[in-house]
Amino acid sequence: MVIWLLVATLGLAGLAVPANAQEFEKNILTGGPSGTYIQFGRNISEAAAKCNVTLNVQESAGSLENFLGVRKKRFTQLGIVQSDVLEYLNTFASDDPAIARAILGVRIAFPLYNEEVHILARRDIATLADLTGKKVAIGVEDSGTFLTASLVLDLAQVAPAERLKINAEESLAALLDGQIDAFFYVAGAPTKIFQNDAIDGARFHLLPIDDPTLQAVYQSGQIPAGAYPFQPDPVDVVAVKAVLMTYEYSPARNAYHRESCRAVSDIAHVITSRFDDLRTNGHPKWQQVDLNDLPPGWNVSSCVNAGIDPAYDLTCEGDVPAAAPQASPESAANSAYRRQICATIGC
């Protein structure tokens, strides 16, 4: 089921070209207003401002829209995507021409943090298996939550009576009103939507995810005790990695590609040169970002590698000289990326 819905989403995507000429913009696609993606986007935008770079933070439905945005949407150089979306696309690209076309030219900018799979449910629902026969919201179709929730339910052989395709805010309202029994939301904890006093711990809780099949497919994760007002104890779950994606712009091709590549390089330089500040003052998940943890099967953008070069020409407040680069035996683009990351923030 998931593959056909994904192909349909890819088929509907198109290149958004403005009707009239406009000032060159730099944009990052993030997620909904209550998620962790948008907070990361705002952190990066605030850091970029200290380097005299304007990065517009755009809300979106989530990972699939963000992936397609960096591939097809004009003036959209960056988007945050879940790693299981990337793995899913890569797996089916060899068998499906629509997916192969969709991933053409998409590249990694930076690996980010692990995102926990949250399932908020009525208190009488104790396990993932108990969602069989229940009404469960799984996110809108072009979101990473939708893909992950669909895969989790299918892999665990859980069959809800109804899968509602609504966003997180609508899902929470429906759960509180008794219209549904549970909803999925994939985001780095703590995420804003669950920091809500209306969620009564006597009525609702986060489901543990301990299915052996899911633990084999996904990374282990834990939502720490006290991450949310209603949650006094830690909850063991599964997690996916958030990855900042971009496109492989070719500066020699035309002015748009040249300016877009410069935009990506600027943001790459901002993230590496302001990394300590982001970890200190940004969302708590910055503490878990490992810039060397590249997902398999995807290459780093050449524009990113240009931006993380210590000699890159962009002055930011508080810049410090880079350490000597460390060698890393790996393939071309990713090897260059690792050398520069080690040079800038250490390994």
From TrEMBL:
Record's signal peptide: 1-21
One Pfam family it belongs to: NMT1_3
Top-level lineage group: Bacteria
Keywords: Signal
Keyword DNA damage: no
Keyword Signal recorded: yes
InterPro entries membership: TRAP_TAXI (IPR011852)
PANTHER family: SLL1037 PROTEIN
Name of protein: TAXI family TRAP transporter solute-binding subunit
Species this protein is from: Sedimentitalea arenosa
